[in-house]
Structures are given as C-alpha cells and as structure tokens.
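Need the bound structure for zinc ion, inputs here:
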Amino acid sequence: MMQVFKQLVLRGILWSGIPHLFRWWNRERAAILMFHGLTDRQHSGLENCQHKHLHVKRFEAFLQHLKDHFQVIPLDELIRCLRLGLPVPKSSVVLTFDDGFLSNYTLAFPLLKKYKMPATIFLATEFVSEKKPIWVDRVDYALDHAGRTKAELVETKKKFKSMAPADLMPALQHLETSLGHRLENSNAENAPPIFRALDWEHVREMQESGLITLAAHTHCHWILGRCSAEVVKAEVQRSKEIIEQETGRPCIHFCYPNGSREDFSSETESIIKDLGFESTMTTLCGFTQPGESPYLLKRFGITDDMDLMKFQWLMSGMDRNQV
Ligand SMILES: [Zn+2]
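Answer from helper R.:
Posting the output first, comments after.
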C-alpha cells in the first residue's frame, strides 16, 4: 500500500514540471552513467538477481528519455572540458559500460547507433581475450546452479571482495569444487548468455563506427585496493597494452573494478597516472562539476530494478542521496 502511495506521489511530482526545473538547475553538471550488460530475457534463480544486466526494452526507454531531455557526449569531450577548465556542455550525459559483455555489441550497439549516442566500454582484457569469466560471475554461476539463496550470494561476494587475489582464487576454486559447479569459459555453449564476452572483432567494428571508445578495466578484474603496487601496475598496464594492440588506438581512460572508496588509494592513482591515463572512473555516486579533476570521477549505476520513473527522478538531480 505504502509502495503504491509512493509511486503515485512520484508520478505526481514527475508530471508537475518540477523535474524540468531541477534539470535546468543542474544543467551545468554532467552525469556519467554506468551500465554493465543488457539482456533480452527474463531470469530466474540467482541469475541477474543483482540487476546488473538491463533489459533491452528498459535500456531503449532510458535512451529515449536522454534523447528528449539531455545531450549524450563522448567521454573524451567531457575529459577535455575538465582538463581545460571549460564549462561542460549543457545537460550532458556520458554513457559507460563496464567489463566487456557480448550484449554490449548484440543488444546495446544497435540502439546506440539508432539514437546516435556515443559510449565508452571498459574492458577486462582477460575476459575478452581468453573468455575466462570474471570472478564475480563465477561466484554467481556456482551458487545459482547449486540452488543457493541471494543472501548467501551477497555474503559470499562480500567476503571474496575483501581478499587479495592470492587468497581469493583458491577460495573460489574451493567453493566451486564443494558446490560441484564451475563456469570455465564464459562463451561455452552451456554458459548463460548474460555472462558471454565480446570478441575483438566486435570491439573493432564498434570502434570503426566512431561511436564507441574502448578503455581499460584491468586484465583480471582484480580489486586494486587488495593488490600490491607491482600487481596494480601489471594489471593496468597489461590491459592498456592489449587494448592498444587490438584497436590500434591509444587507451587513455581507466575504470576501477568494484570502484568503491576502499578499492583505490593515492598510490594506485599515481601508478595509473604514470601509465599515461587521462581519466579514472569509480562507482561513487554523483554528478561531475565543471573544473573537477578528471580522476576518480563519480557515476550513476543504472540497474534493471530501476523503472523509467526512477530513472527520470535520478537524471533530474532531485534525488538527494545521489548528488
Ligand atoms: Zn567491472
């Protein structure tokens, strides 16, 4: 009942024209949106239970809203404005996708072309080059196939995220062995479609369109805050070099795996700057102000449990928790 009441109030506010005023008020600030994969099916069990993969129809509704009220600009343009101390283009939005899921090509790219919207894809290069599933997806897969609960999934991920890679990998293998389920190859026939990785041919075709920028997201998707300085450098450098080799273009933007406050430090940041990156992204939430540093940028995470009203509310800047 309370939920219905809240929905009615929200709908009333959205129809009142107030969001328009907020959008105008926030027009000098940019919003960087974070997506992962898209999906065109309904999921059951633990598959997509944390809503990381957005239904393609929902994604298109969000793009339509952006087309009607905002201007979607390339990440390069936003970074150029920040570096030169210029105002950011009015009501600007930057689209980003993390990890390198195949659905970025099969489901998102056709819509980005239809709406002529640029986007940046941050690639975990081991996932794309070798089809080794990202470790968090291996946790999802093993627990889902063993019929475990969402609470167990959340708890297990939380525990694993606090571990250094040298402890995490044996712990993950032990978990998989004890549950009897292991996702070996993200593009294998029996792998759930949402876990599949892009191929470099897809990456190059998207880059050729002029709409898509490719950027680095480490090689193995380790959380850098749990790694030694040597591993941080190796992970970031390897991912940059592979992307540059495969695309023939400089790779100058980086995105932290997990990206919360404890997942990076001034040390990781200076290693990444020394490798020649011009911007870094986190998963901290908020708008980007003109004159802000292009490092440790905040983003709005967009998930499949968000309806169009919630998205409109978020994009207007009316949500006090998200500014
Ligand atoms: Zn990631």
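Comments: The pocket of zinc ion is lined by residues 98-99, 217, 221, 257 (CB under 6 Å). The mean pLDDT is 93.
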